[in-house]
Amino acid sequence: MMKKLFFGSTDGKAVGTYLEHKFQKYLEKNYTFDLGNSANGIDFPNLEIDIKVTSIKQPQSSCPFRSARQKIYGLGYNLLVFVYEKIDNNLKKTAKLNILHVVFVEKTRTADFQLTTQIHNILENKGNQDDLVALFNDKNLPIDEIEALNLANEILVNKPEIGYLTISNALQWRLQYGRIIEKAGEVNGINKLI
Question: What is the pLDDT of residues 148-159, one digit of tens each?
Answer without folding.
Answer: 999 999 999 999
